[in-house]
Structures are given as C-alpha cells and as structure tokens.
Amino acid sequence: MGWQGRHRLRGLGEGLVQKPLTVAEQVANVLRESIADGSLVAGTPLRQDDLAERFGFSRMPVRDALRQLEAEGIVSIHPTKGAHVARMDTTEIREIFAVRELLESEALRLSVPNLAREKLDEAGHVLNQIDAEPDVRRWGTLNRVFHLALYSACGNDRLLALIEAHHNAADRYVRVLLSSLDYRSQSQEQHRDLLTTCRHRDAAAAVRVLRKHLGDGMATLAQAGPARKP
Amino acid sequence: MGWQGRHRLRGLGEGLVQKPLTVAEQVANVLRESIADGSLVAGTPLRQDDLAERFGFSRMPVRDALRQLEAEGIVSIHPTKGAHVARMDTTEIREIFAVRELLESEALRLSVPNLAREKLDEAGHVLNQIDAEPDVRRWGTLNRVFHLALYSACGNDRLLALIEAHHNAADRYVRVLLSSLDYRSQSQEQHRDLLTTCRHRDAAAAVRVLRKHLGDGMATLAQAGPARKP
DNA sequence: TTCTGTACACTCGTATACGAGAATCCACAT
DNA sequence: ATGTGGATTCTCGTATACGAGTGTACAGAA
Predict the structure, then answer these.
(1) How far apart (Å, rounded) are the C-alpha atoms in residues A133 and A198?
(2) d(CA B77, CA B57)
(3) Which of A36, A71, A223, A228 keeps 20 to 30 A from B176, CA to CA?
(4) Nearest alpha carbon to residue A72 among A193, A166, A189
(5) Do residues A152 and A160 lie in contact, with contact meaning Cβ atoms separated by under 8 Å?
(6) B72 contacts in A (CB within 8 Å)?
(7) Do B156 and A20 touch (CB under 8 A)?
(8) How is residue A152 annotated by DSSP?
(9) Which of B11, B60, B68, B7 is nearest to B35 (CA)?
(10) Which 3 state secondary structure label does DSSP give A1?
(11) Does B228 touch chain A if contact means CB atoms closer than 8 Å?
C-alpha cells in the first residue's frame, strides 16, 4: 500500500484554515483519495486497528472518518463485522451514471449562460494539464476539476455537492478506463467539444455532448464488467 | 422537549433485525424524526453531553449519530464549536426544491410505466390516511411514503435514496406549511391528480402535476420566509 | 475421514478519562 | 460608565479500557 502518511497528514490547505481540520477529517480525506485513485480496491477490509496504527492515531478519529465515508457511499459498514471499501456491481454503476447524467446535464444547462470567460479559460487550462500529466492517479482529480468548472455557474451549491459526491463514488472505476490510451484520447476529444460548445453559449449542444461523454464512459465500464462479490 | 425516549429506543422493526441496530443508529433515527417533525427547530444546539445524558448512553454513540446526520445535511458540525440543527435560508430552500424537482420528475417519469396496480392502490390508501390523520407530526412521514410509492418502480435505488434524503432535509420546513389547512387541502388535491395521471399511465402529465406541486410548495415556503440567523 | 462442538482469538461497539481550545464572566483600570 | 484583561468554566476532540458478538481452528467422536 502506498498511501500511508503517518503523522504527516496536514499539507493541503495549510494556510487558510477556516475550520480547524480534525484528525478524523484528515483521515477521511486520505482514505477517500486512496480509494479514488485505486490504491484501495473494492472489497478491501478497513480494520479500525490497522488504520489507527498506520496513521499513528487512535481508533476514534478513524471511526468518525469511516462513518463519514460510509455516508458518501464509498465504504460499507456492517455493525460487528467491520468496514470495507464499497463494492459496486454493474447495476450500481449504471445507477450512478444515470444519476450523474441527470444532475450534470441540468447543472451544465443552468451554468452555460452564466459562465465567466475566466472559468472557461481555466477549464481549458485543465485540459492541457491532463494532456501533459503522465500519472494516471491524478487524472481523476483533474477530470473532476474540469467538469465542476463548467458547472460552477449553475447557481446551486447543493447540486454541485451532489455532483462531486457521485464523481468521487465513480472515480475509482473510471480510472480503470483511463489506463487505456484509446479511451483517454477519445475522452479528451469530447472534453474539447464540450468546452467549445460552452464557449459558443450553446447549452443544448453542450448537454448533448455531455450525455454522449457520460454514456460512452458507462457503456465501456459496464462492458468491461467490474469485479464480482467473492 | 417531547422526544426523550430514554432507554426505550428500540421499538420499530424489532422482529426482522437483519443488521444489528447500533445505539448510534437508534439515536440518529430519533434525532432525525425529532428534527423532521419540528420538535427540534433549526439552530437548536445539540450538546453531546446533554443528548448522552438524556438518552442514557455515553457520548460516543451520540457523536456517531451526529456525524451521520451531518452527512445527511440536517445538522451542522463545527469542530470545537459543536453541532446544531442545520439552518436553511431562503436560497438553500430554493436549491433543495430545485434538486427535488429534478430528481423526482425523473424518478416519476421512469416509474409510471412500470408501476404495479398494488402500488397505486397503496398510494391511494396513504392519501386516505393523510385525510384521516389529525396529528400534523405524522403528516410529513405519510407525505414521504406517498411520493416514494409513486417513484418506487423507477428502477434506480440510488435515485430513490437521494430523493428520500432531500425529503428529510426539507420536511421540517414543509411541516410549517401543513399547519395551514388551506395548503393541506390544496396539496391533497394535487396528490389525487398525481395519482390519477399515474393510473392512466400518462407520465408526461404526471410530471407536470408534480412540478406544479413542488413549485407551489416552494413558493409558499420562500414567501413565508424562514427564521434568520440570530 | 468427516462432522461437530467447544474454546480461543479477533474486531467492533460503548464507556470512561484526560487535555485543549473557546466562550463567558467578573474585576480592575481608564 | 465603559472597555480591557485574565481566570474560570464549558464543550469538544482524542486516548485508553472493557465487554460482547462473531468467525475460526482444533480436537474429539462417529
């Protein structure tokens, strides 16, 4: 496992700490990232003792973090049986992508007319970063940043939060796709189409591109067929 | 406060306990219900010590419960400052209802063609229950049951879960509406229209009715203007 | 050899305990 | 009378400790 931080968790957002970051939240952030980037694969048991020892804290903040992640849907907890990285079968992936398509289409439709030029440029910059980024692990994060930038002007924070949550839930599976260079170039092409339509303020066309983008991703994923329950 | 259960929490679903109900979950259920039915109004501070003593347990399960409720968006937690029942200003209510309209319209559209006749009858039965129910506190629950019954055949469990969560988040504000008999009768009328269109398998019409139903509710709420920050 | 029962080990849920940070209140000075 | 400083108190976050439930492994009997 390559994610142990061990006493060195704080490191992002060190300067502008509005809310004091509790240990539980830091642990949750590290675990979420490790799950998203594939370091922790589906089904991996998450023992409270192990995690506590690994991070160098007690079990209490670990418990809090696990509960938080359970609420986000990326770990499952059974009382007396422990927690494990949530599994997703094909039907669940289909469900997630259906919800994503619904949420993101609406957000995009609302956002396009109000998108500032800076945001568009920012999104374009992220696309270039993706092209230049060799490390697949960071691709998921950049992908999320790009999409959220396009939705950012939708004027509904709750909608954005939902979208981000579902992105996180799906990221570790999407990452499987990204190992394929074919899919990556196809995805980037769609991303640029998306950005262009947004620049032209053509919301309807943008939504069409987005729907195809998500549909292609899901189809590839469902076809690949993720791991089954043991 | 009229919600203290104190050592007598278990009582619903006593027989078929698939997962052992932890104390934390029981506490969460009681708190959620108390918030939804208005016993705990927005802004009420939730002190861990108080709750623990009131319920007769220690602070640990209370902490777990609060974290769970925070994830559901109905309580806010600030580290070192404690938890309180989440406040919602007008814009947030607007956001919630926008999301609800999006989610529930889609669920209804998908569900209508597949709704079994039993479910329709069940929904109709719930409507009669609402008419016969004098206690406003139970109205919110019945309302949720009715709506979810109509969506139940949408074939997307995750979508249903999202809808239920947003119902819970909004329930305590909707409850304010229900104290008005005017709104209650209007709402019931729309409910029956909704059921009728579903019986005719007219998804488009059903969605129109639902949109108006939700739109009216939000408009009334936004106009009423909920409590401000102190 | 196989099946069963018992005992052990493991993990979680919950309780208690301690330290740190924030808020409040009172006293004192201006 | 009012503003400021400090001390007390309150609450939370985290650590440690204990009890209960479950799974497993080993031994003994069929």
Answers:
(1) 24
(2) 20
(3) A71
(4) A166
(5) yes
(6) 71
(7) no
(8) G
(9) B68
(10) coil
(11) no
Question: Which residues of chain A are within 8 Å of residue B79 when distances are taken between CB atoms?
Answer: 19-22, 25
Distances (CA, A) of A103 to B99, B149, B150: 8, 22, 21
Upper half-sphere CA count for residue B206 (Cβ side, 13 Å):
25
What's the Rg (C-alpha) of chain A?
A: 18
Q: Is A155 left (phi over 0), alpha (psi -120 to 50) or beta?
A: left
Q: What single letter denotes the amino acid at residue B20?
A: P
Structure tokens, B139: 């109205």
**DSSP 8-state code for residue B89:** -
Of B21, B63, B80, the CB nearest to A20: B80
**Residue A133 contacts residue A227 (beta carbons within 8 Å):** no
Query: Separation of CA B230 and C1' D3 in angstroms?
Result: 25
Continuous segment of H or E residues that includes residue B82 = strand B82-85
d(CA B19, CA A229): 19
Rounded to 5°, angle at Cα A12 from A10 and A16: 100
Polymer length of chain B: 230
pLDDT, one tens digit for every residue, chain B (230 residues):
323 322 333 333 333 335 667 899 999 999 998 998 888 989 999 999 999 999 999 999 999 999 889 888 899 998 889 999 998 888 888 999 999 999 999 999 999 999 999 999 999 999 999 999 878 778 888 999 999 999 999 999 999 999 999 998 888 888 877 778 888 899 999 999 999 999 999 999 999 999 999 999 998 887 765 443 33
